[in-house]
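Retro notes - structure team

What went well: the batch runner handled both jobs without manual restarts.
What didn't: labels got mixed up in the shared folder, which is why I'm recording both outputs here explicitly, each with its sequence directly above its tokens.

Job 1
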Amino acid sequence: MSSTATTSAPDLQNYSNGAWQRSSATEFVDVANPATAEILARTPLSTAGDVDAVVKAAADAFPAWRRVPAGERVQYLKVKIVLEVKEEKQVEAIKPSLPRVTDIFQTYLRELRPGDLNGSAGLFRLKEDLTRRVNAAVSPNQVSAVLFKEVVVQ
């Protein structure tokens, strides 16, 4: 569904050149929770100018990136987590959403860079981001926290 009206849902931004940037788009598509139809966010229908800016940023970054040895470009991240809930009855309510949670984790974790995980602050941000994403996937249920059982970065 395309929307131009202002809603309380946040407008998503484009990630380009190492930063989140507002699109120059005037049209947006609603991002809805498939279980409740609640509008979670609006994604921009990015303009040709937005795309050109991303392509230029990538072309500008490529010469430096290609000089980085392949072993430094490829990183491995393994994360084992436990979802903490306040009440045991929520476990059964959340189980049907676990494939969606796994998909969200896979997509998000593939975009992380090694620098995103530096120090305890990086892991704290990762935990907060994962908790927020899980709660969007399992809504109207709620997860109290994402707890790390194992984090390996190679």
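Job 2
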Amino acid sequence: MALSVDEARMESACLGGEYYAVARRRITGVPRTLDLSGHAGDGGRGRKEGAMRLERTEFGSVTIDGQTYEHDVVIRLSGEIVKRKKKLSKQKYGTSHKIAREEAEFVYEEGCEELIVGTGQYDTVVLSNGARSFFEEKGCKVVALATPDALRAYNSSSKRKIALLHVTC
């Protein structure tokens, strides 16, 4: 699937000029839009009553329980959805595409067994070594997937989990 000139400019700018990486990811089939609103998405176990449902994502947004967010979000153990504090990573690395330990400390909650990271539509976000070590020290498994795949993983996980979802690149 080829990119239009406008798409290439937008995505190249978003990735700091890494047009090749975007084109490579596009060829591998990472979808621009994912809609799970009509699917069980829970591995056939049935949805728990009152369970949060991550329904849909496309470049620039994610829909959770019917509410669309046009910014990165963190989902707490309680189900509370808060805006991601990406400035904690940006201050350290100059980008929000590398998660700093300081941001990891903000995201983590005691009792969390699993962190699901939506790494963006084109899989650009990574955890720094410091962030990865922090979660290991806490005994929290990290599952990092392109955001469309992270929605599926969140919906099918039965663990005590939190999520950080990057909604653009």
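One thing worth noting from job 2: The longest strand covers residues 54-58.
We'll revisit the folder naming next retro.
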